[in-house]
Amino acid sequence: MPYSLNDTINNLFINDLKDNFSNRDEFRLDDIILFYTLKDSEIKKSTIQWRVSRLLKLGIIQRTGRGKYALGSFQKFTPYPTPNIKKVHQIIMQRCLNVKYCIWSTQWLESFLPDIASQYITFIEVENNNSATVFFELWKNAENVFYKIPSKIPKQFGKNVIIIKKLISGSPLVESNEVVYPHLEKMIVDLYCDWDKIYPYKNPTFYKFFKKLYSNFSINESKLLRYADRRKKKTVFVKHLQRLKH
Predict the structure, then answer these.
(1) SS3 assignment for 81-129
(2) Is the per-residue pLDDT at 75 higher than 80?
(3) DSSP secondary structure string, 170-226?
(4) What is the number of other CB atoms lying within 10 angstroms of the CB of residue 53?
(5) CB burial class (10 A; 0-12, 13-18, 19+) of residue 94?
(6) Contact between residue 133 and residue 123 where contact means Cβ atoms under 8 Å apart
(7) 7 Cβ partners below 8 Å, 6+ apart?
(8) By C-alpha distance, which of 221, 223, 187 is closest to 112?
(9) Alpha-carbon dihedral angle through residues 234, 193, 168, 172, given to the nearest 10 degrees
(10) Using an 8 Å Cβ cutoff, are 125 and 102 in contact?
């Protein structure tokens, strides 16, 4: 017989768990194990694993890194196909067979950058030596296409700009409906690396932008730092994370 919501809450000791960890910004799996072991000294490891899984699904806790958790009900960042992404994806699928790439848009983040959302950038990151091929096909069939990020993106290029970049190996990616998107952690690091080029005219601080994302979405810190390390920016993001927690 399936659990009712009340049964689930009672079995998970949700109120006690919130009270226990309410003064901590972050805690570890060992802390959760200790919490439930003190409730029931004979509890099985598999039962605790099930409870952790349920807590995550209910949004009572969120992952902040490998074996690290925090209280709260944060949104899971979910990419979606904007009109420009749909158009670009169709062109690549028809004309650039067997090319591995990912695609994303700053339009997804416009609510976190309200002052500079008048121009959306669609990034197409292409593996190996295929970036020139993809650029040529898009240049023939779309508008405002750049090969790599220019030193400054001109204002006059309208609302939608397309930029072709090389896909960095080890990038955290996810596939949805046959379209490959980057994880939020990758987007954050990539935006930091090119912040002054992407937003040269109205330039809010990257830290304020990062703080908004960190406050609204579940961000895997381990994944963020691994990718930041690949881009030689790990030290910067370690400092940003430490600043956020203090």
Answers:
(1) CCHHHHHHHHHHHHHCCCCCEEEEEHHHHHHHCHHHCCCEEEEEEECCC
(2) no
(3) T--EEEETTEEEE-HHHHHHHHHHTHHHHSSSS---HHHHHHHHHHHB---HHHHHH
(4) 10
(5) exposed
(6) no
(7) none
(8) 187
(9) 60
(10) yes
Q: Sign of the C-alpha dihedral, residues 70, 75, 80, 84?
A: negative
Cβ neighbors of 150 (< 8 A, separation 6 or more) are 197
Sign, Cα dihedral of 226, 200, 127, 111: positive
Instruction: Provide the token pair at 103.
Output: 């695609």
**Size (the chain), residues:** 246
pLDDT tens digit string along 117-161? 567 889 999 987 888 899 999 999 888 898 887 776 666 556 788
Helix (H) or strand (E) holding 63: strand 61-65
Tokens for 149?
A: 């990020």
Confidence at 61, pLDDT banded by 50, 70, 90: confident
Angle formed by the axes of helices 234-245 and 206-216, to 10°? Answer: 60
- The encoded tokens of residue 57 equal 């699904």
User: What are the pLDDT digits (tens) for 91-120?
Assistant: 999 888 788 999 999 989 888 876 655 678
3-class secondary-structure state, position 161: strand
pLDDT of residue 1: 33
Task: Give the number of other Cβ atoms within 10 Å of residue 56's Cβ.
Answer: 14
| Residue 40: Cβ-neighbour burial (10 angstroms; 0-12, 13-18, 19+) | exposed
- Residue 173's DSSP bridge partners are 182
